[in-house]
Amino acid sequence: MSEASDPVTDPSERAMSQRPRKFLVVIDETPECRVALRFATRRAQHTKGRVTLLCVAKSADFQQWRGVQEIMRDEAHQEAESLLYEAAKTPNDLAGIIPELVILHGRNTDCLMQLISEDRDISILVLGAGTAKEGPGPLVAMVAGKSQYPIPVTIVPGALSDEAVDQLA
After folding, report:
1. How many other C-beta atoms can be found within 10 angstroms of the C-beta atom of residue 137?
2. 20 to 30 A from 158, CA-CA: which of 33, 57, 128, 165?
3. Is the pLDDT of residue 9 over 70?
4. How confident is the model at residue 7 (pLDDT cuts 50, 70, 90)?
5. Count of C-beta atoms within a 10 Å radius of residue 87
């Protein structure tokens, strides 16, 4: 008798879903984020999929005064909300897609893994590779460093033009 597969981490379980696939993009203020968002939007448009945008509100490690900590958390949430609303214009303007908006609090990598494990409809993570000399970026490095990842990951070169992204997607 075989063990039951884990529906959260088993890619075949995600692939068998009858719902449209979701392309997940992590939203931040980097230029490569814009490229990843455009790519995900065009892929969703061509495959009749959906787009989910995740923005992580950075948690403050300031714990001396509860009131100050709450104010800092609220400000981080408002900043994340603003980034998401601005990013949501891209899928709407380019393809008429109204994206799902998600704000989580914590570290990028932890929040990303949490969302992927909780939302079984997310089938592809789209990341933009940074073009700076520091490397491709922390999320790309995290994904590249994992030997097993629960969903396919598309890494889009951050220096691509809009025209190049549209042709590739």
Report:
1. 23
2. 57
3. no
4. very low
5. 20
Instruction: Locate 79 and state its tokens.
Output: 């900043």
pTM for the structure as a whole: 0.83
Burial class (CB in 10 A: 0-12, 13-18, 19+), 83: buried
Please report, rounded to a whole number, the percentage of residues in the chain having pLDDT higher than 70.
83
Integer Cα distance of 21 and 135 in angstroms = 30
SS3 sequence of 32-45: HHHHHHHHHHHHHH
Residue 70 pLDDT level (bands cut at 50, 70, 90): confident
- 4: which 2 tokens? 């039951």
Domains of the chain and CATH, by start:
11-168 (3.40.50.620)
Distances, alpha carbon 63 to alpha carbons 60, 70, 74, 143, 161, in Å:
8, 10, 15, 31, 43
